[in-house]
TrEMBL record:
Organism, scientific name: Plantactinospora mayteni
Protein name (record): Deaminase reductase
Database matches in Pfam families: RibD_C
Source organism superkingdom: Bacteria
Domain Bacterial bifunctional deaminase-reductase C-terminal, chain residue ranges per copy: 6-178
Xref: InterPro entries: DHFR-like_dom_sf, RibDG_C, Riboflavin_Biosynth_HTPR
Length: 192
């Protein structure tokens, strides 16, 4: 049986994964329903998959945070304690992540092998370039995008699908959280 791979991403309405300026995490739009839902998602047994840049960003954010900051929301703490595979040709030494392993090589080959061998679902939060390559290779089973009610046309960073292949999306599930944030789960199908 092949493990399901979910590309899990936060986005502004205009498709950016982050923003500069005075935007805070979650673009300041997090609410209790969103945070409870995220914790429930990450309470499930699964393996995380990260690219080196996303791993570095998460590790740096956690190291620079305090117990009270939103960086340490319970779902983030739970994510950090899940087993993780970090795909990298540049990371050296041990990782500041409780159960993470660095795997070197081609990301497509690594994730294809993980999908065949893993007894639990695979999930990647962020890791944009990694997941664009995995989508093009047909390895992403679900794209789970949480769309926050903001437009960051002037301050948007990290366009999520910039340079991606073309895909048709089959809607699998949708929900509204806290009355304003949309979570959409799609099955991507390469558009030919």
């Amino acid at each position: 049986m092949t493990a399901t791979y979910t590309f899990d991403i936060f986005s502004s309405l205009d498709g950016f994964g982050a923003a500069s300026g005075n935007w805070t995490g979650y673009w300041g739009k997090q609410g209790p329903e969103l945070l409870d839902h995220r914790l429930a998602l990450y309470d499930q047994e699964q393996r995380m998959v990260f690219g080196a840049n996303t791993y570095r960003a998460f590790a740096q954010m956690v190291a620079a945070s305090t117990e009270e900051s939103e960086v340490r929301d319970p779902w983030v703490t739970r994510m950090r304690n899940l087993p993780a595979t970090v795909v990298s040709s540049t990371l050296e030494g041990s990782l500041d992540w409780p159960d993470a392993t660095v795997v070197r090589g081609d990301a497509v080959d690594i994730v294809a092998r993980l999908k065949k061998e893993s007894e639990v679902p695979l999930r990647s939060h962020g890791s944009l370039s990694l997941n664009r390559a995995l989508m093009a290779a047909g390895l992403v089973d679900r794209v789970q995008v949480t769309i926050f009610p903001v437009i960051t046309g002037q301050t948007g960073l990290d366009p999520i699908f910039q340079g991606a292949a073309d895909f048709d999306l089959e809607l699998i599930e949708s929900r509204t959280l806290d009355g304003h944030t949309q979570e959409l789960i799609y099955r991507p199908i390469l558009h030919i």
